């Protein structure tokens, strides 16, 4: 039998946490034959709610779930974890300055980086979900220097899946027949959802999305803005931010990273830029990646047209500015 994998979820008493932990316990993240031990962290005001989630996990009698650690102690939470999904953070409240929110999150990610660095299992893989996701991941990377940079990522898979969903609805094809969209850059409204290399499985073979969606105007306009602003649209409709789709996408992100992407398919992940596609090195930026043997590789050599170039640069500029803001919070 396989040894259990320890999976940390921070902010586990929150909305995404509540959707995510049962998925992990059911094998959605790591596969139906992989036992797991859940580590759940939240802060003291949420301790009672967190314990309630633990009680429900016990009550659900998940066969794959071999243990639950529910704690407000960062060190206990991080000890020996193999996967860390960082959902906890400080939300932006009405009237708050961007810098104040950044400063709270920089402090959180700096201290959690140290705890992971000291106490997580060797080769622990980290996924940051909490916003500002790319910059929180960058801070985590900077303050956990012994964790290899290839092990630190942020979630843009939700945006990627949203783009697949929009194409599927537009063409009236199953979403599983659409592949190879790309989310470039920041998990924010400056992200660039790119369909220039995406394709659809049809009875006559694989066809480019560009050839099937005759309406260029839709591809250049509404498609992009719908994906960029989908988070806000969900908040408007639900009066709460995306949770089930965020949780499901976090599972997709880790599953593909650990178990590999299907042949001929890439996904989007926020990863440490090495300068590919002339994106400044040293940003956590969303790229198209393939995964094999537990490691991601940026897809190389895709032609980038002039319009796309501008959009890649715009979102990089925003990330550079966020990075500066984050650093100014450190001093
Ligand atoms: P939520 O407010 O329901 O839950 C957040 C939880 O984090 C709360 O239980 C809170 O007590 C906890 N928390 C706060 N500080 C913490 C700390 N220092 N350590 C551990 N836990 C802490 O929020 P929700 O809806 O679950 O969203 C979580 C985060 O995910 C937010 O930052 C949100 O903006 C982000 N998000 C990111 C998405 C992405 O695609 N990257 C998509 C959707 C949400």
Automatic annotation (TrEMBL):
Its EC number is 1.1.1.37. GO terms for biological process: malate metabolic process; tricarboxylic acid cycle. It is an enzyme of class 1 (oxidoreductase). SUPFAM superfamilies: LDH C-terminal domain-like, NAD(P)-binding Rossmann-fold domains. NAD(+) binds at residues 11-17, 42, 105, 129-131. Keywords: NAD, Oxidoreductase, Tricarboxylic acid cycle. It comes from the Eukaryota. One of its GO terms (molecular function) is L-malate dehydrogenase (NAD+) activity. Gene3D superfamilies: Lactate dehydrogenase/glycoside hydrolase, family 4, C-terminal, NAD(P)-binding Rossmann-like Domain. Substrate binds at residues 92, 98, 131, 162. It catalyses: (S)-malate + NAD(+) = oxaloacetate + NADH + H(+). Residues 5-152 form the Lactate/malate dehydrogenase N-terminal domain. The active site is at 187 (proton acceptor). Residues 156-326 form the Lactate/malate dehydrogenase C-terminal domain. The keyword NAD applies. Pfam families: Ldh_1_C (PF02866), Ldh_1_N (PF00056). Belongs to the LDH/MDH superfamily. MDH type 2 family. This is Malate dehydrogenase.
């Amino acid at each position: 039998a396989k040894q259990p994998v320890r999976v940390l979820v921070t902010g586990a008493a929150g909305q995404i946490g509540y959707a995510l932990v049962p998925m992990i316990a059911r094998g959605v993240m790591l596969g139906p034959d992989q036992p797991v031990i859940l580590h759940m962290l939240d802060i003291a005001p949420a301790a009672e709610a967190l314990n309630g989630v633990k009680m429900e996990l016990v009550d659900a009698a998940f066969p794959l779930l071999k243990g639950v650690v529910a704690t407000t102690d960062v060190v206990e939470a991080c000890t020996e974890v193999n996967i860390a999904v960082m959902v906890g953070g400080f939300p932006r409240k009405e009237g708050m300055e961007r810098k104040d929110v950044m400063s709270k999150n920089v402090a959180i990610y700096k201290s959690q980086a140290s705890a992971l660095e000291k106490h997580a299992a060797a080769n622990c893989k980290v996924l940051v979900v909490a916003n500002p996701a790319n910059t929180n991941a960058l801070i985590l990377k900077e303050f956990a220097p012994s964790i290899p940079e290839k092990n630190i990522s942020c979630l843009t898979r939700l945006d990627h899946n949203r783009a697949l969903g929009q194409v599927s609805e537009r063409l009236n094809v199953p979403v599983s027949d659409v592949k190879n969209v790309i989310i470039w850059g920041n998990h924010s409204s400056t992200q660039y959802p790119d369909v220039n290399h995406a394709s659809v499985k049809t009875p006559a073979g694989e066809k480019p999305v560009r050839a099937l969606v005759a309406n260029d105007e839709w591809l250049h306009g509404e498609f992009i803005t719908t994906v960029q602003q989908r988070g806000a649209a969900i908040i408007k409709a639900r009066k709460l931010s995306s949770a089930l789709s965020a949780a499901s996408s976090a599972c997709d992100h880790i599953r593909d990273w650990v178990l590999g992407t299907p042949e001929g398919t890439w996904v989007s992940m926020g990863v440490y830029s090495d300068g590919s596609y002339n994106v400044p090195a040293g940003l956590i930026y969303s790229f198209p990646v393939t995964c094999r043997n537990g490691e991601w590789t940026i897809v190389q050599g895709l032609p980038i047209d002039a319009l796309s170039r501008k959009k890649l640069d715009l979102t990089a500029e925003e990330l550079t500015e966020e990075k500066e803001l984050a650093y100014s919070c450190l001093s």
